[in-house]
Amino acid sequence: MDWYLRSADQGNSDVQLNIGYLYSTGQGVAQDDSQTMVWYEKVADQGNATAQYNLGGCMTTEKELLRICPRPLSGSAKRLKEGTWKRSRKSTLWSDKDMMLELILVTIRPIMHGARSNDTLTFMTVHENRPLVQAVRRVYETGQPTTPSNITYITCHPDSSSSGNNVILWEDIKTVFGDVAYVRSGSIVQTFLKGGDFKNLDPLRIRAVPGATLEVVVRGQPIYTEPTAQQKTSNRASLQELLRDALQETQKTTRHSKYSYIRNPVPARPPRTLKTAITQQLSTSISNPNTYNSPKVTPLSPPQPAPEDQPAHGATQDFISTMMTARTGCKYAQASLGIMYLDGLGVSQDYKQAKDWLLKAAEQGSADAQCNVGYIYENGKGIPHDPYKAALWFAMSAEQGLRFAQHNLGCLYRDGRGVPKDDTKAAELFLKAAEQGHSGAQENIGFAYDKGQGVPQDHAKAAEWYLKSAEQGSLFSQYNLGVLYRYGRGVKQDHDQSLAWYLKAAEQGSTDAMCAIGYNYQYGDGATQDYTQAMEWYVKAADLGNPTAQNNIAIMYDDGQGVPQDYEIAMDWFLKAAEQGLATAQNSLGVMYQYGQGVLQDYSLAVGWYREAADQGHADAQFNLGNMYEDGEGVEVDKTEAIMWYQKAAEQGNTNAKKRLELLERRA
């Protein structure tokens, strides 16, 4: 710490920023909120955006008060009359159907012994416009409550000389909140002018202790969209000027406060990543890789972890703090604010506002914001779907080295969305992101090496990248690694390892892995043959819609493996899989219709299902369709068409088709 202090005294802003962080977290030093403020302010005064952003987080109190003077608002009514209290500015910064944010700048000139001649307080109040379950209710003579009133909160902080006996006067509150109805502290409701039988509690004294919260109940809907006549004479500043002046005045009056309430600054939310459907493969094949990954928290300097347990109002607090800081031009806050609007965190979801704020940050060079703007265009969030613009923004972010953008841009190149399809470019981008630890990119580069897409085929490298991704919890990589161990591709064949990886993936819901485990048990491949276990795993996957599992259940009923042979049940399962486009099941349905197994014989339907599978390149279906044309079953006899389908099947190695072609040649 001594070295840090010496370096900081020489003006090193990075060190000063880190010292502020150490004091805020209590790492290596006693946690000290006031020291945190001092060091952050040193760096913020130098124009450092990160410090300004972190300082913006520190400026948020536990509720809506942005800053309060270290000297409490105290004194008798007589003293107040001797002083001059003037509301110099009041402006609504932001409002929607749920709440309204209001900035009030109050200049206080009290005549008190030892008081400073001129203090400026900045209040930031949030008025909840929606009814609150815990709201204070107006009380009448009947004792019956009415509709919940609107509430705002003040947190009290006495100065260092306070013994805890300072009070906040009702006049003080009335001066700032001219339209309040009453105040309560804790569970005691204090009424104000509620009827002839009620005593006017003016002045109302409430003991002010550090952290004590007063609930100020406001009459009606406290939305101030236009200044009053009195305010118009002194308030001509623009919204930006008001905010700028308020923040400047706040820093003047609170620079040495020992009672500023420090909150963890809000880090920018993680950039989104693309999501595309995963193509289901056969139980013995590799699954296509996914295109998404777990969230990433964009680190500030130094990183500011959010508390584990946030109160229910935390999202609102974070939104207020972030919005105030974003309006100062801080790109980190603008990026965070965009995500809050995008996800509806602490504010109503608003895609237009999300795009606007993310664009502000993106245009300042924020890689995270650029990536998120790409996400908005890619997914059409509040704007037309535009993969070309998505690619442009992903490219800007990727050039700055953001792994999420590199991965997303790689997906676009791989799929040819918004950019020309380019497997080589996709692999390059996947590799860059994978080397930074992006699980989805590790999976995708593994798949590229596995299939030789954009890179030379290399099963050993595929296994290496699958392993990295699998260890991060990717169920697709876990399954694909199981496949490599099952067949000894790039690794030594190991059925135990294969089954272990299948089980890890299955536990996370991979239906391909469930199907593979069922296959192992059905054929005793890497496990003791057990038809009951096989059926259980197939049913788990089939119930989740896996067509391969549905097909395999049909085979077990068709052959009577572990269950009584039942062609009708087999037919039902073949149909489920065939309707999902599984060529193997479509061919099997053709056989069932051709020979009337579990269904009435129907050559026309048989031809239809054979054609569905044959068009997908299924060799057995191509041979069967050739047979139907040769024999004229379900179609007119057509030797030319039959030979064409036999040739297609023979080219794929179908021995029956080869024999049939030889026979037809001899007959010719």
From TrEMBL:
Protein name: HCP-like protein
Ranges in coiled-coil conformation: none
Membership in a protein family: Belongs to the sel-1 family.
Source organism of this protein record: Linnemannia schmuckeri
Highest taxon of source: Eukaryota
InterPro entries hit by this protein: Sel1-like (IPR006597), Sel1_AlgK (IPR050767), TPR-like_helical_dom_sf (IPR011990)
UniProt cross-references to Pfam families, sorted A to Z: Sel1
Residues covered by region (Disordered): 283-314
Classification via PANTHER family: ERAD-ASSOCIATED E3 UBIQUITIN-PROTEIN LIGASE COMPONENT HRD3, SEL-1-LIKE PROTEIN
